[in-house]
Amino acid sequence: MVVQRYCLTASANSSFKARQGHAVQLGENGRINQTLRGTADGYWDHILSFNLAALNEGCAADSHAAVNVSVLETWKVFFLGRNLSRDMWERYAFYMGGWGRGDSVNLEIASVASNSGRNGSSCWPVVDAFTVKKEWDA
Questions:
Q1: Which residue from 8, 50, 123, 138 has the fewest beta carbons nearer than 10 Å?
Q2: 20-72 pLDDT, tens per residue?
Q3: Residue 133, helix vs strand vs coil
Q4: Radius of gyration in angstroms for the set of CA atoms belonging to the chain, rounded to a whole number
Q5: Phi and psi at residue 99, to the nearest 5°
Q6: What's the whole-number mean pLDDT along residues 87-99?
Q7: Closest to 127 (Cα-Cα) out of 101, 109, 104
Q8: Which CATH number fits domain 5-136: 3.30.450.180, 2.60.34.10, 2.60.120.260, 1.20.1740.10?
Q9: Shortest CA distance to 66 belongs to which of 47, 44, 75, 74?
Q10: Residue 61 is inside which H or E element, if any?
């Protein structure tokens, strides 16, 4: 099985042209995996935040790009709403649970099947700007 993942650069026909940056489009069966390790300085609650967009305006209007985020046997599917504003990015957050003191957890962000856009292109999700923040759990 081939896992599809594309690095995208800003262009005139992409939804992130104003950002002048890079993002990742998760194709069919596309996924990002990252192992995160807790620190020895205590037990922390962790929150993941990220941006989600459709590849272009046709996809944003006709389908709902979505990703499934999972960690520590917890998961949630995030759907891009019908955001037809100039900046089609939406920001999401996911509570990853509490861990630390040398714990190791696997974070996975995976594409969810979607309909085709107006031009018949695949409307797989585009993700960007991942941040994991920790907060002390007393």
A1: 138
A2: 557 888 888 889 999 988 877 788 898 999 999 887 777 766 667 899 999 98
A3: strand
A4: 16
A5: -165, 165
A6: 88
A7: 109
A8: 2.60.120.260
A9: 75
A10: helix 57-62
